[in-house]
Amino acid sequence: METILEGVRQACGAIRVEDLHLDRAGRRSLARLVVQGKVHRRSARVVSLPGAKRWVVMCRLAKGVLTCRWALRHYGLPVIGEPGCAHVAITGHRVDPGVVIPGVGEVDLLVDRWFIVETDGYAFHSKPEDWTRDRVRGQGLLYQGRVHVRLTYDDVMAGRTVDVVELAMAGARAYFGGLQRLS
């Protein structure tokens, strides 16, 4: 059981179960750790230590990798400045968070410099004026020929982020052909 706990610790406090490479006995040990409260099951595929950083858990649920200054420090690499925001990279793609699109404003993620991902958690998108603002922003993106997808909190927490983004990108490429990249 200590090996499992060490694996979760080394993964910044949250890990995808498949990355623990557990055999049958290991899976039983993990179940005991969950019952004992030493590990929390975040989904069928992700476990974390109590008190794990929320953004680390979200990263694991999204099948991403940590790419922030905090991760650099965690892995013993040189860091300029203090750790601040956390970014998630969708493996195999360039992901830029917080990109400002003229006439629209800041978008959550820009994938491969052309595909826009917006995440709509209920805490910030529950009021009618929030819903309207999101639709106006989406229309502004379409007016500019920008392809985007909106993910719900449930999409992210269920680990559907990568699948949704990759399927939507493939569909957009097939339908629209060559797409404009943002510089």
Please give the structural blueprint.
Elements: H1 2-10, E1 14-16, H2 24-35, E2 40-41, E3 46-48, H3 54-61, E4 64-66, H4 69-74, E5 88-90, E6 95-101, E7 105-111, E8 115-120, H5 128-143, E9 147-152, H6 153-157, H7 161-176
Quick tags:
single chain; 183 residues; alpha+beta; Endonuclease, Chain A; 2 domains; four-stranded mixed beta sheet; three-stranded antiparallel beta sheet; 7 helices; 9 strands
Shape: elongated
Distance between the termini: 49 Å
Task: Please tally the helical runs, counting DSSP H or I stretches of 4 or more residues.
Answer: 7
Mean pLDDT: 79
The profile of the biggest β sheet is: 4 strands, mixed
Give, in order, the helices and strands.
HEHEEHEHEEEEHEHH
Task: Count up the domains.
Answer: 2
What is the fold named in CATH at topology level of the largest domain? Endonuclease, Chain A
Output the strand order for the largest sheet.
6-7-8-9
What does this entry look like structurally?
The protein contains 7 helices and 9 strands; from the N terminus they run αβαββαβαββββαβαα. The radius of gyration is 19 Å and the shape is elongated. The strands form 3 sheets. A 4-stranded mixed sheet has the order 6-7-8-9, sandwiched between helices. About 5% of the residues have low confidence. The chain is α+β, with helices and mostly antiparallel strands. The N and C termini lie far apart (49 Å). The protein folds into 2 domains: 68 residues; 85 residues, Endonuclease, Chain A, CATH 3.40.960. 39% of the residues lie in helices and 22% in strands.
